[in-house]
Amino acid sequence: MRTLDIGTRNYTKVVAVDEKGQGNANHHYEISVVDTHKTGNENGFCTAGMTVLFQNGPIKEVGVNGVMNEDLIAIVIDRMRGFQSGDYACPENATALLSLENALFELNSRTKQREKCGVEGTSKVHESFEGNFDKDSTVLDCHNVHESIFLKFMERHSGKVFNFQEGSITAVEKDDFTKPIQHTHCVDCGKKLPPLPDNQKPCPAGYKCKTCFKKPQTQ
Predict the structure, then answer these.
(1) CB neighbours of 206 closer than 8 A, spacing ≥ 6?
(2) DSSP one-letter code for 163
(3) Angle (nearest 5°) at CA 80 between 68 and 149
(4) Bridge partners of 168?
(5) pTM over 0.70
């Protein structure tokens, strides 16, 4: 048994009951009251411990036998959204909610990548990726892109100049940033757009006018 040294531990404690197994992670946790007097309830609400059993082993090999990481994160997200829509809304909650949503996004991205590699539900390791753009791409399409993708893109191209334009971001080498290039038409409707400043490099994917940019994106 191993008591986790993370969390508040003011009223409850979390203990990993089993030994690390599949994936080098624990799968059996118990939550119990640290001090029943602090709860205002002499009996305590979980003195005997509340058990959380996570999925142990690949689903295609052992079936579903526990909850997923995403399940618990989704529960906390739902609670935080509730707090933020009521009297307990605060900047700290907003930051926590964003971090939780980022975490859930990344885990879902991992699942999609494993499905793409044909290894989801198995014990095989997948070939990871960063974000929903090509590894060596210098252009990021901003439509329906999560904040974490922006951060990864900018980190990968650290040291370059970022050209922010409607609908996209282009990472440009500093030496190329001063080359005057014009790009003045909407890629959807052909409407003429204002010319780019001489010190800005256009995005290879092109730009859209405000009308086309606001149109719903079709899959």
Answers:
(1) 183, 185, 186, 187
(2) E
(3) 65
(4) 141, 165
(5) no
